[in-house]
Amino acid sequence: MTDDRSLERAARSWLETGPTEAPDRAVEAALLRIQTTSQERDWHVPWRNRPMTLTARLVAAAIAIAVVAVGGALVLGPGTGPTVGATASPSTAQPASPPSSPSQAAVASSAPIDYSDIGGRILMEHLGNAPDGSEMPTTDYHPERRRLYWMDPAKMTGATAVEFLPGQPTGKLDADVAKDGSKVVFMDTAVPAQVWIANVDGTGLRKLSDPCTCSELDPAFDPTGTKIVFVHLEGATRNSQNGANLGIQWDQASTPRSWLAIRDIATGNVTKLPITTKDGGEGVPDQPAWSPDGQEIVFSRITWGEANRPVSNLQIVDPVAGTIRTLPTSDSTSGLDASTPGDPDWSPDGSTIVFTNYAFSAMGSIGDLPGSRIFTIGRDGTGLRRLGDGGTASYMPDGRLLFQNNYFWIMNADGTDPRPVKFIGDDLTELNVGFAYVPHWVPNP
Amino acid sequence: VDRDLVERARRGDREAFAVLVHQVSDTLYTVAHRILRDAGLAEDALQNALVLAWRRLPHLRDADRFEAWIHRILVHACYDEVQRSRHWSANVRVLPVEGPATLDETSAVADRDELERAFRRIPIEQRAVFVLHHYLGLPLVEIAELLEIPPGTARSRLHYATQGLRAALIGDTQLELQGGRLA
User: Fold this and answer.
1) Quick check: B39 and A364 CB within 8 A?
2) Rg from Cα positions in chain B
3) I need a surface site. Which of A20, A307, B72, B87 has the fewest CB within 10 A?
């Protein structure tokens, strides 16, 4: 397919595939905006059409420069100039004006963040080639190239990232950090996958999973750091372990089953949450996260739509009451639609859940994925909002959001004032570096 | 497109503009989707292009040029989308969830996937010319006029897009040969 004619033929045929109609919601949203948008006035200024000679242009330019220079000298007297190097810290900066469209939020500000008062670092989940460039670039996946790295926000580049627990076990993903910043829990990429825990200084590594033919996936700490919730999957394996897709694979002879379970870290006792159980390949729970008050657990549940496209919903389970409810992640009135919600996380006060329109933490940049969007919704299921572009968003202890959009960003809880974690940092999505990046904020001990 | 509708919309008639929007939005969206390869970004580009077109419509001198004019606005809206939200480039095949595909299906999927990956790697300006030429079937002279660029620039963008596609496809093949499939 590499001579020009066959390439063009193939490309034409390929271009023919895809949607042929504009989504109604996009057209209606545009018409709605037009109702409140004024047209520009079409000024007709006759003298502008009159050609000016070169001499006249030079004279006009000289006059304009002189006027500006004199005016500037009068206005900017001694002591009134700006202070060089002054930067507003995020905590004191005025909130930015709301972006004119939701997806503009992530580019509202380019000033780097002042880290002096943040007090923490980033644990980065990474899928791809070594961020320091030491591995042969490949645009394909390898399970052992899922790793965890520490990144110091003040000097955040791939070259300065330090791998956490290199080589043991080889592939690591879906990490969670205890609220006090002392411990990390994660799953490996073995088949079946198992859950591990370690101290943030790299000591105390041990496997939490018991010997089992099942997979234990997506561990997350409770607020006390004494228990974890995880996904139990038996009779099947999940493809996202090695970055393939959100599906699961099983031999047709067995029936996959999945549920959420809680493990006491000290005793190893496991409590199954029966109400979360699903049989078959549909409805496997994904990415649970424990509410700050310890009362509820939010998770996404992946099912499959037309042409085996993943769809999902966001659910909240009360482990004590044994109840479950589904949050509405689309709203026909506002046109908001996160049809495949994933990667949920709770705000520190427990009132709000942030999520993305796809489980980008598992997939990163694989296949024909939707544009990455960050949403929030109230714990009670009201107030669905789209904050802006990005994926793998999680809350920091101060209520701001840390997320990925080519590189790492921090923004206010309402989506305003997004700022890059490092202004001239690595573009994490460069193909020769990696595919999936998930940042976790880890407070200093 | 009805010239009378354009004239009425130019004078501020929102209902006339809404009719125009319904006439052109499918084409605009499909072009944006082919350029951006992302449904969300294409929706944003379409929305922004329609709103901008409404605002600037009084400046349109020739109502007969409405379609070319709004396509130019759309292409620039696509540039803006890429500029402010460079989406994570997709470059790995999606495995079938339910069993293996047949050989022909696998081959077709692989070709489409290769093109998808390769296309995402070429610059947005080149993608736009490629789509306008190979999808809408516009001649290069018309594309140059539409985008307000010299014909030579349109020609070179199409050339480099084709070369870029070919280079990316060859590069992928070589990578596969060197590194093997790792998944």
Assistant:
1) no
2) 19
3) A307
